[in-house]
Structures are given as structure tokens and as C-alpha cells.
């Protein structure tokens, strides 16, 4: 997003957007006080122990003071993030965030879930924009970028005419990387925690490693050393203001299903840790198919966590991978390549004793290049029962360095059809 670009809200949605942004701002403002509650609870228990136990934990007591200092530093970064008003609708009379004395006041309507999102946003800043998380980014983003560059080669296309959409763009690094390669890239994000933070990194950080953040300070378990919990990261490792991308980059706010309804609008949709964020994943797949141009591709990487599966009051379906293959082909996609077992982590402290990772799925699907092929394929599928599992030769556990032979696919398109 360039400095002269802002998010525009319709009149009908304006008040709802204001309330949502105010809720996010309140959670960010309350961060320090909320985080202190956890430290204070531990210290209160420490003070209740026998004198000999407290003496043995003297260095641990000092560590709790270091934790508070890290929380203070995080709040200072949050204050910088909130200082800019670019994303806020005009006329919002929320607290003046330049007044640091008001950041400890408990704002109204702050929920535990909001505070979890505020803390998670700090970890996601580290994931997308710190050198410490470069390996984690490469696991997730490199297969996607490589496949897009192989399909839409710079030698064959004017890249600024290739429109790529990244739903669930988060802190915007994948969107930025694709735009740096010359593509016209648009990120879409529903969470204003993410949008406000990504706007800060993309538009307001004017040199590399400008800010220091302590993203793991809330992880009290599985720490080998005291220093591991309070390990700093600097961001951004690359400065988008200093090194703007060659291609156009935009960030759009809103629900993916509500915002994107125009058929044949994008040459590529790139999803990373996104498709399992739907109550009904079929809605996502249908929408992706609809908005792709004929011949356009959908590149996906991620697990099947299904975020709404265990949330009270939410309905959810959780199709397996083999179900998704059936769904994608039944909707009309040509599955060019699929791979399983891609080792990926998500916002993990690299120093923690616990290292959770996914064996993620990766696939490249294509919307058929013309309507006739599409109609014929759908007609044939409607006449047949879907098989239990559609297996492709490329369905193997592979290294993330994925290569897809798109030239073979294009050669098949040029061959005369058998009648």
C-alpha cells in the first residue's frame, strides 16, 4: 500500500467499521495492563513461598522484572503503531494515543479474545518482518512464489498486468514479495489487528530494523533459558518505504466472501494458512473459482486446522484432504499439482523447547482456459458419483522446493481435441 492510499468505507458500513476499529484500538491500548496481570499473578505466588524457596528463585524474580520491561517496550511499539490515523475513518473521537498516560486505563468492552489477538499480532509482526523468522517464512511463502513465477514467467508476460489476490494477507509480507517481483498484488484481510499493524510496517517504518519487539514474552513455559522468553527481534528486516515494490500493491479490508464477487477478475489467487478459516470451506473454493480468469491459477499452502471447529456458537464443517480434492474438481478446477507433508511452522519461538509444525498441503489448481471445457467437465462430473479419493501422481511427500511442469500442461492445451 503506497502512502497516498487509504481504506475507503461506504456510508452504510461506516459506523460498524468505527466500532470495530475502536475495539481493536482499545485492546492495543490495554495491552500493557493486561500483560502485567499475568506477571503479577506469578510474583504474588512467589511472595507466598517459604523464604528458602524465594532465595533459590532470586534470579527468577529478577527475570520477572525483565519481563515487565519487555512488556513496556512492546507497549511503546504499539503506541507508535496507533499514532498514525491513516486507517481510521475521519471523525473518530477515540483516545489520543499520543498521550502515554492513558494507555494503562482499562477501556470498555475489551474481551479476553481481543487481548489474545493483540498479543498474537506481535508474534505475527515477527513472523513476517524479522530476520529471526526468515526460515519460517521461506517454508510457507517460497513454494507459492516459485509456482507463480513458473506459471507467469517474466519472459512470457507483462507482470504488471498479472493481477494476484492474497486473501488472509495478515501482516502483508507475501503480498509485498509478489509485488516486488513485478506482479500487481492485492492483499485482503478481515482483522483490523492485522490491517493496522501491516499499514504501520508497509507505510511508516522508514528504515530497516527500526523497532525492537519482544514477541515471545508471553510464553511462560518450555523456556530453556530465561533469556529465551525475553529474546528481542528487530523489524522490519526489509523496509517497504525504502524499497517500494516494482508492481502495484494494495491492501483491502473486509470479509473475503463479501468483498470479492466479481467474476474473472484475477489471474491468480494465492492462499497461505487461509482456507481453513471458513465455516464452510466450499464457499471459499467456489469464490476463488469464480473470481479467477479462465486459465488462471489458485496456489495454496497450509494445514486444515478449521478455526471454527471448536468455537462455541459457530457452525463448521471440516472436510478431509481427500474430500477437498473431490470438491475442487467437482467445482471445476483442474488440479495441476498437489503435494503433502510440507513441513511448516506458524509464529513459533525458534528458541522454545516445544516446536509445533504442520505437515501442510500444497497445490496448484487451474480454472479451465475456456467455458466450453468447463461446461463439458461439469456435465461429465454431474453424471458420475464422485470417487472416494482422487489421487494424482504428484501426491507425494516432497521437499518444499516444488517444481510444477506448466509447459507440459500448456502443450496439452494446444493439442487437437479427440472427437
Automatic annotation (TrEMBL):
Which Pfam family name is an example for this entry?
CARME
Q: Which GO terms describe its cellular component?
A: cytosol; nucleus
Principal EC category: transferase
An example GO biological process term is: carnosine metabolic process
Q: Which SMART domains match?
A: N2227
Q: EC number(s) for this protein?
A: 2.1.1.22
Where are stretches of biased composition, namely Basic and acidic residues? 394-419
Query: One GO molecular-function annotation for this sequence?
Result: carnosine N-methyltransferase activity
Q: Which InterPro entries does the entry mention?
A: CARME, SAM-dependent_MTases_sf
For the region Disordered, give the residue spans.
373-419
Classification via Gene3D superfamilies: Vaccinia Virus protein VP39
Q: Which family does it belong to?
A: Belongs to the carnosine N-methyltransferase family.
Its recorded name reads carnosine N-methyltransferase
Amino acid at each position: 500500500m503506497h502512502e497516498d492510499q487509504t481504506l475507503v468505507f461506504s456510508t452504510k458500513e461506516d459506523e460498524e467499521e468505527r466500532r470495530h476499529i475502536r475495539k481493536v484500538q482499545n485492546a492495543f491500548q490495554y495491552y500493557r495492563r493486561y500483560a502485567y496481570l499475568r506477571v503479577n499473578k506469578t510474583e504474588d505466588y512467589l511472595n507466598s513461598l517459604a523464604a528458602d524457596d524465594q532465595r533459590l528463585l532470586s534470579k527468577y524474580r529478577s527475570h520477572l522484572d525483565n519481563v515487565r520491561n519487555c512488556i513496556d517496550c512492546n507497549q511503546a511499539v504499539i503506541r507508535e503503531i496507533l499514532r498514525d490515523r491513516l486507517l481510521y475513518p475521519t471523525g473518530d473521537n477515540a483516545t489520543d494515543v499520543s498521550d502515554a498516560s492513558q494507555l494503562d486505563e482499562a477501556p470498555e468492552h475489551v474481551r479476553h479474545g481481543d487481548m489474545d489477538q493483540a498479543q498474537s499480532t506481535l508474534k505475527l509482526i515477527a513472523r513476517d518482518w524479522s530476520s529471526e523468522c526468515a526460515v519460517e517464512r521461506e517454508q510457507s511463502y517460497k513454494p507459492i512464489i516459485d509456482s507463480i513465477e513458473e506459471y507467469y514467467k517474466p519472459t512470457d508476460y507483462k507482470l504488471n498486468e498479472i493481477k494476484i489476490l492474497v486473501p488472509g494477507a495478515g501482516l502483508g509480507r507475501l503480498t509485498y514479495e509478489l509485488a516486488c517481483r513485478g506482479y500487481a498484488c492485492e492483499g485482503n484481510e478481515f482483522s483490523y489487528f492485522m490491517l493496522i499493524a501491516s499499514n504501520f510496517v508497509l507505510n511508516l517504518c522508514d528504515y530497516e530494523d527500526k523497532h525492537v519487539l519482544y514477541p515471545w514474552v508471553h510464553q511462560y513455559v518450555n523456556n530453556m533459558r530465561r533469556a529465551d522468553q525475553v529474546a528481542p527481534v528487530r523489524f522490519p528486516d526489509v523496509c517497504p518505504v525504502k524499497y517500494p515494490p516494482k508492481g502495484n500493491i494494495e491492501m483491502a479490508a473486509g470479509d473475503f466472501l463479501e468483498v470479492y464477487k466479481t467474476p474473472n477478475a484475477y489471474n491468480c489467487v494465492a492462499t497461505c494458512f487461509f482456507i481453513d478459516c471458513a465455516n464452510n470451506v466450499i464457499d471459499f473454493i467456489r469464490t476463488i473459482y469464480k473470481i479467477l480468469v479462465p486459465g488462471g491459477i489458485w496456489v495454496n499452502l497450509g494445514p486444515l486446522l478449521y478455526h471454527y471447529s471448536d468455537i462455541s456458537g459457530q457452525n463448521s464443517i471440516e472436510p478431509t484432504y481427500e474430500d477437498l480434492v473431490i470438491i475442487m474438481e467437482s467445482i471445476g478446477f483442474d488440479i495441476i499439482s498437489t503435494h503433502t507433508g510440507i513441513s511448516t511452522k506458524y509464529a513459533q519461538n525458534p528458541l522454545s523447547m516445544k516446536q509445533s509444525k504442520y505437515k501442510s498441503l500444497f497445490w496448484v489448481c487451474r480454472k479451465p482456459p475456456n467455458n466450453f471445457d468447463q461446461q463439458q467437465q461439469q456435465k461429465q462430473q454431474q453424471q458420475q458419483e464422485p470417487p472416494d479419493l482422487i489421487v494424482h501422481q504428484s501426491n507425494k511427500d516432497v521437499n518444499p522446493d516444488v517444481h510444477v511442469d506448466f509447459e507440459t500442461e500448456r502443450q496439452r492445451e494446444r493439442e487437437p481435441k479427440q472427437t
